[in-house]
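User: structure tokens for this one?
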Amino acid sequence: MRTLTLPLMLAASLALTAPAPAQDLEDLIGDIADSLLQQELDKQAYIAAQNANTVTAYRNYLKKYPKGLYRANAERALVRLGAPVEGSPDAAAVAEAQLGITASQKVAVQRELTRLGYSTGGSDGAWGRNTRTAIATWQRDRGDKVTGYVTEAQLKVLLKGAVVTPPPDDTPSGTLTPAEIEASLKLTRAQRTEVQKQLTALGYDIGVADGLWGSKTRAAIKAWQKVNKKTQTGYVTASQVKLIGSQAGSVAPPPAPVNEAALEESLLELTVAERADLQRRLTRLGYDTVRTDGTFGGGTRRAIGEWQADGGEPVTGYLTADQVRLIRVETGG
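Assistant:
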């Protein structure tokens, strides 16, 4: 877009203004000139920060122009430089990640939240939307800052100072259920598909090797566990995954190519309403998604890719959790 000079912008603004008394017109001209001058100063300050491209430079810009025209761009640049804006969900997420919370501790937190009346939708060690909502509600009721991510002090409260350690790999325990032990492995969709293919190669019918472990896959795991003298739970442990792979050996079919970016987006489990909201937000940012019906078609993928390119992100056309939050930040939360 071509940049207008200050005099030309002032003239254009006056041309759109209705006739006014001389004194009012003088005041109007002064107000418009001040506004245009502030916009120009704002722009120059952001360009200076952009040229420096440092955390300090962008934070200085935000400090000087907290409501500046380029605030969203500066915040996005901070996230890209690994320094999320203070007080943002990204900063809270980074701080929580640095705590190094173990899978068993996550299960313990979910159980404590459930005991306190905050439903997490299960105690599997995977902190998804339900657990984040439970944490946020608990934080609100305590009068803490609501982020959905725990601080070190909050973690100690929820764990009550206890150090929770996971049980031995194949040892029955009252601490974690078989499903929780399997969940703590954090197997990707591709890894689940590979296990299914390995079980098929060993002669166990899992149905379709699609990474979705339904009743057939669970039955196949139980049958394999029975043959190998393991507790028949239908859920695998880390050593069992290794043993299945070892037994299948080279006879297991090679894994199919996986679009990791698409897989990561699918794990977000975005609802139709959330997808439609993101399409509207991208449109507001100037990236035409063609439709806002909650279906990510070619137009939406292209818009996501353009937004990623403009922000210096890897262009995949698929969103990560951090990018979803960033789009929301850029459009006012």
